[in-house]
Design goal:
With about 400 residues, the protein is an alpha+beta fold. Helices cover about 45% and strands about 10% of the residues. The strands form 2 sheets. A 4-stranded mixed beta sheet has the order 1-4-5-8. The protein has a 4-stranded antiparallel beta sheet with strand order 2-3-7-6, with no helix packed on it.
Length: about 400
């Protein structure tokens, strides 16, 4: 059977499985349901999570021996296409926190067999929520200056220090942290990537509220917290390399859905503009300048989405840290923020509300989304940090930033 015939056969299999397992009651409700607070309230969503996790199609290209789908990139695209047709969605990347988008791929690359067997299957099923501990109050952009430390106590690691901007830490069962394990080594050489169980008395989380009205961010404090001795990911004192690779996964995960509107987006910019601005006699958007700028934005979003897909495909199986993710991260931030700016412009005075009956839910959500999107220029490494990486690693320009 040819490759095309095999793919068409797989498409039929995917359609049949989705028809049997996706609850029609939640069709098109992905954006509404996959928020952390609503996860436990909808039985259909929970039923869908379990079915998708057991099938391995929430992580379709991950190895089947660890609970993934074991599928090719083309088969994964077919699943995504068939899901979109019926309003289905993959909730696991959100429900697993950093598990699917960042930690899982990094464990698959750097983890021991025991770490893979322990951590990957629960991530594939969406059973656990992961957080990450990178930034500290005095070690954000200069991450190599981090001071949170892990001491070797023979049979375990003893961790003390503080992390900040730890997304979802108050919900997480596990956290992956960059910790200092050698204070005598040069800054970047004394860091290890350590995995800790969040369910212990030595860890305290405090949520941080942001300008958008809510936030996944927390401060996380470690006071004699413990980690198993075998939970160092990668080499001891080799955490800088592991951490950089994880950040590459993070930047790639931030470059797709939000910038292009996401699979769950119900209303396009074009629909919104026709509704709020109106059409001319030919049925075109009445404001030609706005029409041109929306078209320009849609071309940027499409170029960004396709470039991301190409880079991810090319990077498959390549463990070398690449600066391409920095380009994509900055491009995605710019595209996403431009979309939010256009949305508010289209809404006009209806894009000024914070709360109240004079505004519809999607209008209030647009305002809060516009405010929240400002953080995209900072998280995952600021816009300026990405430019420094691009300048040094792609353009070959001389080092001008702090050295570790």
């Amino acid at each position: 059977m040819s490759d095309d015939a095999n793919l068409e056969s797989f498409r039929e299999e995917a359609r049949a499985w989705l028809a049997d397992n996706f609850p029609s009651a939640i069709s098109g409700r992905g954006a509404e349901l996959v928020g952390m607070e609503s996860v436990s309230r909808d039985p259909d969503l929970e039923k869908w999570r379990v079915a998708l996790g057991e099938k391995g199609w929430g992580t379709p290209t991950w190895p089947a021996e660890y609970g993934g789908g074991g599928l090719s990139q083309k088969q994964a695209q077919i699943i995504d296409q068939e899901m979109r047709k019926i309003g289905a969605f993959n909730p696991l990347p959100v429900m697993a926190g950093m598990g699917i988008t960042m930690v899982g791929p990094t464990i698959l690359e750097y983890g021991t067999e025991a770490q893979k067997q322990k951590h990957i299957p629960p991530i594939c099923r969406g059973d656990v929520f992961w957080a990450l501990g990178y930034s500290e109050p005095n070690a954000g952009s200069d991450l190599a200056s981090l001071q949170c430390k892990a001491e070797d106590k023979g049979d375990h690691w003893l961790v003390n220090g503080q992390k900040t901007w730890t997304s979802g830490a108050d919900h997480a069962q596990w956290i992956g942290c960059l910790v200092r394990t050698d204070f005598d080594a040069p800054k970047r050489d004394g860091i290890s990537f350590l995995i800790l169980d969040m369910d212990q008395p030595g860890i305290e989380t405090r949520p941080i509220e942001l300008i958008g009205g809510s936030s996944p961010f927390c401060e996380t404090f470690f006071n004699d917290a413990k980690a198993d001795k075998d939970e160092v990911l990668g080499e001891l004192n080799g955490g800088w390399t592991v951490g950089k690779r994880l950040l590459q996964h993070e930047r790639q995960s931030q470059t797709g859905a939000r910038a292009s509107g996401g699979a769950a987006a119900k209303v396009t910019l074009q629909d919104l503009a026709l509704k709020y601005v109106g059409a001319d006699d030919d049925g075109k958007l009445a404001d030609p300048d706005l029409r041109a700028r929306i078209a320009d934005h849609l071309m940027k979003a499409q170029a960004q989405r396709l470039t991301t897909q190409r880079v991810i495909a090319e990077a498959k199986g390549n463990h070398k840290v690449s600066a391409a993710a920095s380009i994509l991260k900055n491009a995605a931030s710019a595209v996403s923020q431009e979309k939010d700016e256009l949305t508010l412009e289209i809404l006009g005075h209806q894009g000024l509300g914070w709360e109240g009956h004079d505004f519809q839910d999607h209008e209030l959500a647009a305002v809060r989304g516009w405010l929240s999107a400002k953080a995209m220029s900072i998280y995952g490494g600021s816009f300026e940090i990405q430019n420094n990486i691009i300048a040094k690693n792609i353009l070959g320009l001389p080092e001008t930033t702090q050295k570790g």
